[in-house]
């Protein structure tokens, strides 16, 4: 697992699997560990896709992946980072009294084509109609919605959209690195995409954001041009990711008395 790189005058002779994920997550694991109500942090390490696998997917689906997403799959074929948020961290594992948060990206094999009779997508200029050449693939699934990689204009690269339960496509961002960074900024809280679109968040999601990342919803641009904590797309150059789990549990403190409703 060695690779020689020369960057800005420095010679790096080895990129380890741990350092890859540490740089990819930008410290999110440490933030969650310090939260009283977060347990069972789990990171699934996926093997990288081969160049042949990526090229075959592109040829089969008639869609060239954006360079950042292509490099992502060549580093890790899919991504799964999850945790459990629960007010009362008793011995019970009952999922009815906790919420599962995290960041999920489908592997190439699950980037299925989304076939829909819905014909609308929303742009700054208003609602437009899907053209026959539109190509839409599921990047990540949500409860009633899904995040998709969509190309509505053949002259432009595919971008990241939310296919909302009202059956309209809403633009989240123009590229995958920005999407992944948004997910990290919201700590993978379920439904955070709705906050970006200024839609109504589920009660649980709204509460989790205010507990895990207070202030993130209060008049602060999510992506700032001068932000120092930036994902460097060059880290998506990685080989051999043996599967491994990361389990952790934060220090216990006294939970609040009132539990949220199911």
What's this, in brief?
The chain has helices at 17-25, 28-33, 51-61, 67-73, 176-185, 192-196, 203-212, and strands at residues 5-7, 10-12, 38-44, 79-85, 99-105, 120-123, 126-129, 135-141, 146-151, 159-163, 169-173. The longest helix has 11 residues, at 51-61.
Describe the protein in words.
- The strands form three sheets. The chain has a six-stranded mixed β-sheet with strand order 7-6-11-10-9-8. Strands 3-4-5 form a three-stranded antiparallel β-sheet. A two-stranded antiparallel sheet has the order 1-2.
- The chain is of the alpha+beta class.
- The protein is 22% helix and 22% strand.
- Strand 8 and strand 9 (146-151) form a beta hairpin.
- It is built from seven helices and eleven strands.
- The model is unreliable at 1-8, 219-229 and 241-262 (pLDDT under 50).
Topology overview:
Layout: E1 5-7, E2 10-12, H1 17-25, H2 28-33, E3 38-44, H3 51-61, H4 67-73, E4 79-85, E5 99-105, E6 120-123, E7 126-129, E8 135-141, E9 146-151, E10 159-163, E11 169-173, H5 176-185, H6 192-196, H7 203-212
Parallel strand pairs: 6-11
Antiparallel strand pairs: 1-2, 3-4, 4-5, 6-7, 8-9, 9-10, 10-11
Low-confidence stretches: 1-8, 219-229, 241-262
Helices and strands, in N-to-C order? EEHHEHHEEEEEEEEHHH
Give the terminus-to-terminus CA distance: 45 Å
Question: Mean of the pLDDT scores?
Answer: 78
Structural class: alpha+beta
Biggest sheet overview: 6 strands, mixed
- What is the 3D form? globular
Strand content: 15-25%
Number of β-strand runs: 11
- Biggest sheet: strands side by side, in what order? 7-6-11-10-9-8
Helical fraction equals 10-25%
């Amino acid at each position: 697992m060695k690779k020689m790189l020369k960057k800005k005058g420095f010679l790096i002779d080895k990129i380890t699997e741990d350092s890859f994920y540490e740089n990819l997550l930008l410290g999110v694991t440490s933030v969650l560990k310090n939260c009283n109500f977060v347990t069972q942090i789990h990171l699934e390490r996926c093997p990288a896709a081969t160049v042949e696998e990526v090229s075959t997917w592109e040829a089969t689906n008639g869609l060239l992946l954006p360079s950042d997403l292509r490099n992502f799959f060549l580093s890790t074929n899919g991504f799964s980072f999850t945790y459990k948020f629960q007010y009362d961290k008793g011995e019970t594992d009952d999922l009815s009294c906790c919420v599962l948060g995290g960041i999920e990206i489908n592997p190439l094999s699950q980037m299925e084509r989304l076939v829909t009779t819905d014909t609308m997508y929303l742009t700054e200029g208003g609602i437009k109609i899907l053209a026959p050449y539109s190509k839409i693939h599921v990047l990540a699934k949500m409860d009633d919605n899904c995040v998709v990689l969509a190309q509505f204009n053949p002259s432009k690269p595919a971008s990241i959209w939310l296919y909302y339960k009202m059956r309209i496509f809403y633009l989240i961002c123009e590229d995958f690195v920005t999407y992944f960074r948004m997910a990290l900024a919201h700590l993978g809280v379920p439904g955070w995409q709705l906050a970006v679109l200024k839609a109504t968040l589920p009660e649980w999601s709204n509460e989790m954001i205010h507990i895990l990342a207070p202030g993130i919803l209060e008049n602060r641009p999510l992506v700032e041009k001068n932000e120092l904590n930036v994902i460097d797309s060059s880290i998506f150059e990685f080989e051999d990711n043996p599967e491994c789990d990361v389990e952790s549990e934060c220090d216990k403190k006294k939970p609040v008395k009132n539990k949220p409703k199911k």
